[in-house]
Design goal:
The chain is built from 6 helices and 2 strands, in the order ααββαααα. The chain is 75% helix and 3% strand. It has a single domain (5-156), classed as VKOR domain (de novo design (two linked rop proteins), Up-down Bundle).
Length: 158
């Protein structure tokens, strides 16, 4: 049975996102540190988003392998990395994660859930994009894990 490269990308990114998000959420449930965990997830996602923006706009060196299925440059430099003419998708992380941080800081749980669901929808779109490109961006996948972990944590703590 032959499995295509695109199918492997879809399977690996989706599987990794689900499994690691579940593990992080289990740790959160075990410790009971819901708000702190949501804050850690949001700040981590923001830091990675800043790094991706620096790469895409200023060409800061990108520490990512370029072999086999993993090729962050191929994903980040693709035609799918643009929202509009000069606006890269990584900029959304600079908007999304600070909004999540603010919602957690003010203790607005319904807003955390709402933003997390919006992030989940966008995560599905981005996973499909990596499938279309046929490569995995480790940094992008990390942000997906943070988004899904925030949503799972928010839903469990409700």
């Amino acid at each position: 049975m032959h499995v295509s490269k695109r199918t492997m990308v879809l399977f690996l990114v989706t599987g990794t996102t689900i499994v690691l998000s579940m593990l992080l959420t289990l740790i959160v449930v075990y410790t009971g540190a819901y708000a702190i965990s949501e804050m850690i997830f949001a700040v981590s996602g923001l830091l990675v988003s800043i790094y991706l923006v620096l790469y895409q706009y200023l060409r800061v060196p990108l520490a990512c392998p370029r072999s086999g299925l993993v090729d962050c440059r191929k994903v980040l430099d693709s035609k799918y990395s643009f929202l509009a003419r000069n606006i890269r998708t990584s900029v959304l992380g600079l908007l999304f994660f600070p909004l999540m941080i603010a919602a957690v800081l003010i203790g607005n749980h319904p807003l955390v859930v709402l933003f997390s669901f919006a992030g989940l929808i966008y995560t599905f779109e981005r996973i499909y994009t990596q499938y279309r490109i046929g490569s995995i961006c480790l940094y992008c996948t990390f942000t997906y894990i943070m988004v899904v972990s925030m949503l799972m944590t928010a839903l469990i703590s409700a």
